[in-house]
Amino acid sequence: TALQTADSDTLYRRFFTSRPKISDDTIAYLAEVDYRRRLALVAFASDGPIALARYEAETDPLEAEIAFVVSPDWRGLGIAQFLGQMLLDEAEANGMHRMIAYYLSTNDGAAGLLTRLGFVPDENEHGVTTAHRSLTGAE
To answer: Exposed, middle or buried: residue 110 (CB in 10 Å: 0-12, 13-18, 19+)?
Structure first.
């Protein structure tokens, strides 16, 4: 998967730790979707997966966290924005009212992506920024 082949920097930007152990159980969990509260989209190139975008509602059924991983060679090409917009559209169609994202405050790529997707930064705590976006028709 994209996570299993990701470099250390990519994993650090996604999981906020230097080299997390991506176990088979974690991969299975991330790949398991119900198409309503948990949805994942994967972009493929000829040699395999290059990007993963997913959302998941945890405690609040109307709010979901969105997250992205893009292989370094494929960054800056709009893949995450394309996948992100598809996820936002699906989340809204599935009744979500609010999306939330967490990213390292030093990750300018994530900040720019989320801004382009309509997210607004809320707070910055211990080097992690929280951003949110209300979905159309919500609130």
So the answer is: buried
Contacts of 126 (CB under 8 A, 6+ apart): none
- Mind listing the domains of the chain with CATH numbers? 8-134 (3.40.630.30)
Q: At what angle do helices 108-116 and 79-93 cross, to 10 degrees?
A: 50
Question: Alpha helices of 6-124 — where are they, by DSSP H?
Answer: 8-15, 24-31, 79-93, 108-116
3-state secondary structure of 117: coil
Give Rg (Cα) of the chain.
14
CA 48, chain centre distance (Å): 19
Q: pTM for the full model?
A: 0.79
pLDDT tens digits, 15-50: 555 555 667 777 677 777 888 999 999 999 999 889
